[in-house]
Amino acid sequence: MFLEGFARLADEFAGVPSDGDPEADLMALGHAYRAAACANPHLYDLMLGRPVAGFRPDEAALAQIQGTFETLTRAVARCMDAGRFAPTDPYDVAVQLNALVHGLASLELRGAVGSTVQADHHWRISLENTVRGCRQPPITDGPPQP
Q1: How far are the Cα atoms of 66, 73, 95, 134 from residue 101, in angstroms, in the given order?
Q2: Res 93 pLDDT > 90
Q3: Residue 35: which of 119, 126, 99, 95 has the closest Cα?
Q4: Whole-angstrom Cα distance, residue 115 to residue 141?
Q5: What pTM value is reported for the model?
Q6: Is the pLDDT score of 144 beyond 70?
Q7: Strands (E), the chain
């Protein structure tokens, strides 16, 4: 079921263009993430909430699910290549965006962002403000330490 959840997320991502406006395509990935979480809340919790004590995916499973994150990283890189985002490590920005959509989806599934209309508002402004921030030079203190 863990892998099925990521397969469904990958299917949602596959429906997002990757040849249009890079920022719009990136934001569409955020909305696709939301759609996958809302359509399959129990799978979402299994994928990212760790409801089964002690469950840790093995290396083969981790390799299999990496594609969804790579899709996000490529979308960020497209924004940088097009000069829309300040140059930095696309992986770092993808981690930040992933944290944003994961947090929003988790809150929405628990009813913590209000009605659907209110959730729509929070998703829109969160994604737009984050994309706007990515246009600025990044704040960094150097590469992560092991």
Answers
A1: 17, 14, 10, 15
A2: yes
A3: 119
A4: 39
A5: 0.88
A6: no
A7: none
